[in-house]
Batch of 2 targets.
Target 1
Amino acid sequence: MPSVRQLLYRPLIAATVLASLAVVAVIAAFILLSDRNLARIHRIEATVGQVNQLQAIDHHLQAMLLDGPDPRALADIRARLEGLREEWPDLIPTIVSALADPTRPSLETAIRRLQTLLVQENQQEMRLLEQVVRDTEVERKAAFAGLVVLSSLLALGTLLTWRWLFHPLQRMNTLLLQLADGRFEPIDIHDSGPPWRPLLDNYNRMVRRLAKLERARRERTERLESQVRQAATTLLAQNRDLARAERLAAVGEVAAGLAHELRNPLAGIRLALHNLHSETDDPEIRRRLELVIAELERISRHLNHLLDQARHRPEPLQTFELAHVIEETLALLRYQLPPGIELDCRIPAGLQVRLPETGLRQVLINLILNAAQALGNRGHIRIDATIEGERLILTVSDDGPGFPQALLDQGIRPFASSRDGGTGLGLLMVKRFVSGLDGRLQLANRPEGGARVTLEIPCVPPC
């Protein structure tokens, strides 16, 4: 690569030695000022990286104010700050000492000190940029003075000097102003003279580095905003779930209280019915009294089960014949259903299961009454049961309108019912019973019309 002197004197053969020395002096001044500007630009580049680290730490501390202090994260932040102690030996130790106490006031103190440091560094960067601009103005004025002195002797040199010196300098001035505004645009070094290409090449490297850091900062900001929005959405959903849980807890307390209050009157009614049963000789009346007494005993067991649930004591497992229990339940329900609704029980005879009997009866009552309410005054309800492997498959189906699509899409929710006056707790109780046995509950609409509820319950021997 030719020297600066050769580049300037090649088009100026007739120039005098004095003019040549003047040109060399002007160029030397340009190089000196350019080196100073380059040093300041490198300083700005290094400062920007350190400030970005401080801003990232500030973002983490701001997030901790919302989520609560995390000792492990605070330890990591203190370690990162220790790595910056040499740059700011006065303020960094005060911030680290404030973070030693993982409390909210200490976090706020550390954030204030960190923000004070960021403000100081921003002011320092502005002063460096102002110095660069001032030196650039000096370069421009020196170049203009040199051109005035040499214009009469070096016409061609003036043209080349404008092309090689002033034009790149003006472009650099514009780019530095754009850099202060946050616009990182590289410059084409092939349109500049060789003396400027190293500086412009360094400037382009700095611009690429600053643009990369700016993209990382924007991505980090967008990521933090997304995390904040996601956290807010999760918090709202948890609040809604908590409200539903509180309502269910209130319903459970009311149910336990009612169960406690109803047990004594039911005991008296059951005793009176036993007396009537022993005093009557009519077989039909005795059979009906036996059904009523059996149902009262089931209600008493269910009330005791509610109280046990309130005390977190599950109903014990019992071995019984499934067809017999279901037939007893259907015999009682037939008196509560409209005459136009047919009950069809298809349970294999002799099928022994080991399950909570009272809970299973209550599940069947809920499912059959739900189906009857959907059917109205006429329809057909069918109960099927099979054993598949080690699981009992119990199905209750009807030929009514079927389940609403919203229920199939969203699942069973408390206090969500498509029926006027419904509480949505019937299916929830069924789901709770099945889940308590590690089973699975499936809701579906039959292709030929109607609803189908399938209970898959792990079958304890002697199933």
Target 2
Amino acid sequence: MAALDLHLGVANKPGDLDGLFAHHVLSSVDVSFAWEVNPLTAQWLDQHTDRLRHAPGLAVLGFALYDFRSHRDLGMNERLVDGLRDLMRRDPFPADRTTFVTDRRQLLGITLAALVARDALLAFHSWLLDVLHDSRFRADDPRTDLARRHSLAVLTDDPAPLGGLAGVKNLPELCMVHWMSIASTARLADPAADLQLIQRRILTGLLRTDIADLSTCDAALVRAAAGRIIDASIDSTVLTRSHVGIVLRRFPAAMKRWRWDDPDDVRHPIRWEVNSEREIQDIVWIMLRSVFSDLVDEEPLPRLGHSSYRADFGIPRLGVLIELKYVRSAAEFKKIEKEILEDSIAYLRERGTYTKLIVFIYDASASNQEHDVTTAALLERDDIIDVIIVSRPSQLPAPGTATATPAAAFTPRRSRSRRSSSSP
């Protein structure tokens, strides 16, 4: 790890394209140094104005504006849009083959630039998709093609299916696949088995590789994979399926800090509405992802007849799926029970990666009298191992009363925004 961090330090400079690529890949990995790659300062921008008209400079802006979103406005968004318009006028596949499309660093940066500028220049998003699908695209090595597939997944929000991994032994290529699986831009055929194979080969390859022979991009991918694998290995010795339920049962306590300001107490009240299953998915994702590093969002499952299925979340190494439901009234519990029981048959019928199901139900109606009945009904199935039902916290209004005043039990304090003061 120390050798990899030292290797990366050479590119840890403002505006360095290698460094920005490494920073992006390692965004959720602890490293032993402080990142200094952010170029969004007036001094740096003044010194590199000409550079921002070409693909490498636009890639730098893409990384910077995407990864350092809290930057102060220096007119960079406008420069980015102007530069992307110019890029669209050029041939992305020139005769000399010098193009951003086959440079992983530039391609990823330009892809992020497309996301940043999407509202202002939607045409570039479409143009880049056409470029990535162009028959003239020629990948010099598998990593370049993986970068193309990653960019396509980012732009379309559709993970690339990756198979045939048994024959992959190149360390940087394995690490690229690992990173894509973590970033949810790749879908492995058998997440648990494939991920285990990849991790084992990465660790073996790391022992046989001279770090000095790696490019900065490859070193970043190797460092990201190694860090996450070690963290996951430590977690796997401690975490079990029962820990999923333990974390989810902390939902009420976590909601104590949920923002629902009283307009009488603050000048600019903030109210985080929870009106559908989508918001519950977001909250539960934050809770589980902080504990389970291999949490998969909307895990696609094998088709059953004419129907396709997606579980809300999956944790491959635990072999468990998590299904979320939002209940608006007491009368809905019966319908929810039926849906879950039917879905569980489809989810777990093949007994492959996933063999167990955990159910989480958010009861917006606070119909506590229904909870035990539903829990008992669902637990009659052997493959449903836990059922967690939580009620709407008191500071949030009941469905259909979005303008309701927060709980009166709170003692107003003018200096702070209102949150529920009593434990859920």
